[in-house]
Amino acid sequence: MPPLVSLIVPILADREAIRRLLPQIRLDLRVEVIVAEAGNEPGLEALGSGRPDIKLLHTSQGRGRQMNAAAGLARGDWLLFLHADSTLPSDWLTPFEAATRSGAVGGWFRFAVDDPAWQARVIEKGVALRVRLLTLPYGDQGLFVRRRTFADMGGYKDLPLLEDVDFIRRLASHGPVVEVPCAIATSPRRWKRDGWFRRSVRNLVIIGLYYSGVSPQTLARWY
What we know:
Elements: E1 5-11, H1 15-21, E2 31-37, E3 54-58, H2 63-73, E4 78-81, E5 86-87, H3 93-100, E6 106-113, H4 118-134, E7 144-146, H5 147-153, H6 163-172, E8 177-186, H7 189-194, H8 196-211, H9 216-222
Parallel strand pairs: 1-2, 1-4, 2-3, 6-8
Antiparallel strand pairs: 4-7, 5-8, 6-7
């Protein structure tokens, strides 16, 4: 019997992040995990030792390529794409199953930053507003899609940046989408490195330029 969901994690030089993530994912017959690794880091095979539900796939570099390659091996009815530095809540499967029985073709989880700082709460509220007004979650919210819909869409485009934004825009045109009412917690390291609000403003500028017609290739050079 195939699993309900294939959890796909693309990584590049993310050994420590994936080392922390995998033990958090409980062994469950409804879930398979595919790690799509593009850096040829030695020793990664040992991370899934004793876990028949975890597969390691070596691919060419590029997040879209990595996720497409993993999706080609997936057996689940649903594909859930998760960043390595994110954390799934322990009880995520129950609300996920309920949400996917709604007739939706795909969706995402709520957003949280794994940090107690007040700036993190402001960013969370801003993300919730963006998603509510624009139906525009990012990849760090755990985008998911029915496997057959993913095939109909042609998967992710091979873009150097904003492959998640392009994907969710196309996904929403294939049918209803849904938000799972529990949050995936994202590492705060990029906000702490770049500045809490500086990074968020930069992301908004990039998105605004993309919607204005600037290509992801050009934006990747600026980014």
